[in-house]
Amino acid sequence: MIRRIARTALASYFLSEAAKAFTNTKSQAAEAAPFVEFVSRESGSKVPNDPEMIVKGQGALMGAAGTALALGKFPRLSAALLAPTVGANAYMHEAFWAEKDPEVKARKQSNFFRTAAIVGGVLLAAADTAGKPGLAWRTSHGVDVTRREAKRAAKTARREAKLMAAVAGSKLPS
Hints:
By secondary structure, the protein is mainly alpha-helical. 82% of the residues lie in helices and 0% in strands.
């Protein structure tokens, strides 16, 4: 029950940000333009230098993954997808280190660290197995159990073979 409430509360941030991406696309694209240009240049133009498209794409990803997280569908994958988007979002929109105005800088700094806390929550959600062991543990545990069972079966087979040989040896004519 707590996980369901926590995931829904965490997802509300992303759903809100997704809505903003589509209602305030132009202003968010203006803020994101330097970051998008940098990423486009550094990626060798593999990422298009189109801030509006990037803002809408990020909004769509946040909306889809946020909805999945809220509904408990693929929560670990959803959270893992959200972590880099919120990190990039904080960098694009809350770059307090570039501000000269002390009031704006303080507001952006507060928002940046609030967003950093959300990144921490998303990372915890991505690592949360809901009390069930992860795939890696189940695989290694399965291998260990199979190995033990194989040793036990081999030991039993050897013992049965000796017993059968002893029974067969006593029934052979001399």
